[in-house]
Amino acid sequence: MSKQELAVLGQDDANGCCPGLLTTPLGEEQAVKLAKVFKALGDPVRLRLLSMIASRESGEICVCDLTPAFDLSQPTISHHLKLLRQAGLIDCERRGTWVYYWLLPEMTDKLASLLTRPGQPAEAAS
Amino acid sequence: MSKQELAVLGQDDANGCCPGLLTTPLGEEQAVKLAKVFKALGDPVRLRLLSMIASRESGEICVCDLTPAFDLSQPTISHHLKLLRQAGLIDCERRGTWVYYWLLPEMTDKLASLLTRPGQPAEAAS
DNA sequence: CCTCTATGTTGACGAACTTCGAAGCAAGAT
DNA sequence: ATCTTGCTTCGAAGTTCGTCAACATAGAGG
């Protein structure tokens, strides 16, 4: 359940991953990979899901705690979680009856640094 | 041409804008606003456009320099530029015959800080 | 005025996305 | 074994998106 087919921004990229986005024109291939991640973030439901998952003290959260926060069917939530997982933003594991999700901080860190300008040593939001 | 209808993440938000995304569950309204920006980034063509605009020494670039970099019709490029503009990521101005675009760093800074974890003082990508 | 070049806008069409209900699967309880 | 609960997958409906051709607009230069 954990293995995903999408490597998106793999650490094994040719030119040391990503030259910066705001400093060097992005290549087409990298643009395609990056776009998939941003697209995954481009939906209010998925943003809230990610936020709920990431902001848990314990580091993980059960699907059964996510679903009731939305006016959506369970299949729909499951679908959105799948997209976040395929984007490399989260991962999950089944433990007995329940499935737990957690954040993969490498990806959000990567995005943050890509969006950070050379001069601007971005600090966490207020 | 410069005025846009979308305030997205306005500085005049109620609770000081955005509580962090990775530290506090995102409210529905904020999620909707944020999603529009990420959705604008969720396309390879728009990512490359933004990258080309942002990485210009002069700080601005003419549409006539953007269009030939893509295998797309000029109206399509124009359409993507419009979406980036409505997302608050870029702005433009007509000077004589040509139209120039430039980055609005406030938005990318905002996104970077939203994706930055409390402990992690993100630095610009390599 | 008219023409030419550079961009933006409109309308249309196929592809992709969001959502749901129904069905499937996995694990615990009876 | 069977039932129940939690979650995912499947198939279909409605909506949104990316793209282009055609048309519209703005300014430069006759």
Coarse morphology of chain A:
elongated
Nearest-angstrom radius of gyration of chain A? 16 Å
How many strands of chain A? 3
Strand numbers in spatial order across the main sheet of chain A: 1-3-2
Continuous helix count of chain A = 5
The CATH topology of the domain at 28-114 in chain A comes to Arc Repressor Mutant, subunit A
Structural class of chain A: alpha+beta
CATH level-two architecture of the domain at 28-114 in chain A: Orthogonal Bundle
Which percent band covers the strand fraction of chain A? 5-15%
Q: Which stretches of chain A of 5+ consecutive residues score pLDDT under 50?
A: 1-16
Largest binding interface between chains: A-B, 53 and 53 residues
Mean pLDDT of chain A: 87
Tell me what the structure shows:
Two copies of one chain form a homodimer. The first copy, chain A, is of the alpha+beta class. Chain A has a domain at 28-114: Winged helix-like DNA-binding domain superfamily/Winged helix DNA-binding domain (Arc Repressor Mutant, subunit A, Orthogonal Bundle), CATH 1.10.10. Chain A contains five helices and three strands. In chain A, strand 2 and strand 3 (98-103) form a beta hairpin. Chain A is elongated, with a radius of gyration of 16 Å. Chains A and B meet through helix 1, helix 2 and helix 5 of A and helix 1, helix 2 and helix 5 of B. Chain B binds a DNA duplex (30 and 30 nucleotides) through helix 4.
